[in-house]
Write a structure and sequence with these properties.
With 203 residues, this protein is of the alpha+beta class. It has six helices and six strands; from the N terminus they run ββααβαββαβαα. It is 42% helix and 16% strand. Strands 3-4-5-6 form a four-stranded mixed sheet, with helices on both faces.
Length: 203
């Protein structure tokens, strides 16, 4: 009987103590230890994968090949248009790269309908917004370039959203003269004049 180990008996019950072979107990303990080691290794590997970004570097470690860099809000092509608007409307506020979610809101339907409409417009951005001193919107100015070719339908949809909210959109391909810009918001005819001027100026 020297190769067996007694198990602890419950003091409140008269139950015969069972005896297990010592080798079986040791085998069970070894299995538990190996299981703990395997689980620990798995957790460590999983944490390592979660901490990696797409570029293979560890987030926050400073060794990631990807990093964030500051850039200008407006491109070199957009900047002249911004300053032309500032020159043409010194008594107004000119904003750039404004999300549609800051310009319009979805109302009138039920909660689901309003949310669905809001999601359609929230990711869109206006190139320039002309505002009064109280920041109420007068018009949106879009500087179209070659990237808009073939996107006329989408542009028309964007303009339709703004028109529904009572916001006028003026699309130009290059900064118009100051006087034409000022006239462009007086009437529909003057807005067409801006477009005609562009057509003549285009090579």
């Amino acid at each position: 009987m020297g190769d067996t180990l007694p198990l602890e008996c419950h003091p409140a019950k008269l139950i015969a103590c069972k005896r297990l072979p010592a080798g079986g107990v040791m085998g069970s303990l070894l299995f538990v230890v190996l299981l703990i080691v395997v689980v620990g290794v798995g957790v460590t590997v999983l944490k390592g994968k979660v901490g990696k970004d797409e570029g293979g570097g560890t987030i926050g470690s400073g060794i990631s090949p990807s990093n964030l860099q500051a850039k200008a809000v407006l491109t070199e092509r957009e900047q002249p248009m911004y300053w032309r608007l500032v020159e043409a409307f010194p008594e107004h506020v000119v904003l750039s790269q404004v999300s549609f979610s800051q310009l319009v809101s979805a109302k009138g339907g039920n909660r689901s309908q309003n949310l669905q409409l809001f999601r359609r417009i929230s990711q869109k951005t206006a190139d320039f917004v002309l505002c009064r001193k109280d920041f109420s919107v007068i018009a949106v100015i879009e500087l179209d370039d070659s990237s808009h070719k073939g996107k006329e339908t989408k542009d028309a949809e964007r303009d339709g959203f703004l028109k529904q909210a009572g916001i006028k959109t003026l699309r130009v391909k290059q900064p118009p003269p100051v006087e034409l810009l000022r006239q462009a918001f007086a009437s529909k005819a003057s807005a067409e004049q801006v477009v005609k001027h562009e057509a003549k100026a285009s090579p």
